[in-house]
Amino acid sequence: MKKYINHSYFYLAIFFSLLAGLEIPFNTITYSYIFYLISKKSISLIVPSVIVIILGYAAFAILGYIKSVVVNKNIYLINHKLKNNFLMSKMSHVTEEQEDFESGNLSFFLNDLKLLEDNYWRQIFSLLGSVIMTLGTLAYALYSNVYITIIF
């Protein structure tokens, strides 16, 4: 499968998947900070904090969109190379007497590549984001309070 991967788009998709995975740790930190502001009654920090939090949410919304665009482009390039390679190899072996060439290979184009796309490529990038989300949330939880983190 390595020969079908466009490395620049693949690494870009990994990068944006990792960045988008930081959204939940960001949410955790902002909720914690809001409770800190409430408990310390820091009224002067509320407006700047809300502005920074809104900008953070906007940044993560943009990151999510960019991630989906890059992942979709990556999957398109992989499928395009797979289809070209498959067609070239099949067309070099086809003869006039061969029946059902089109219908026999149509399943590959319509079903198998879609399954590969949904069950493999999209899951890889989703898994990367989930790992970063878990590690980031765990790191912040351990930083905040080790004992409560161990209990939960």
From TrEMBL:
It comes from the Bacteria. It is found in: Cell membrane. One of its GO terms (cellular component) is plasma membrane. One of its GO terms (molecular function) is ATP binding. SUPFAM superfamilies: ABC transporter transmembrane region. Keywords: Membrane, Transmembrane, Transmembrane helix. The chain crosses the membrane at residues 12-38, 45-66, 120-143. Gene3D superfamilies: ABC transporter type 1, transmembrane domain (1.20.1560.10). It is a multi-pass membrane protein. This is Uncharacterized protein. It comes from Candidatus Companilactobacillus pullicola.
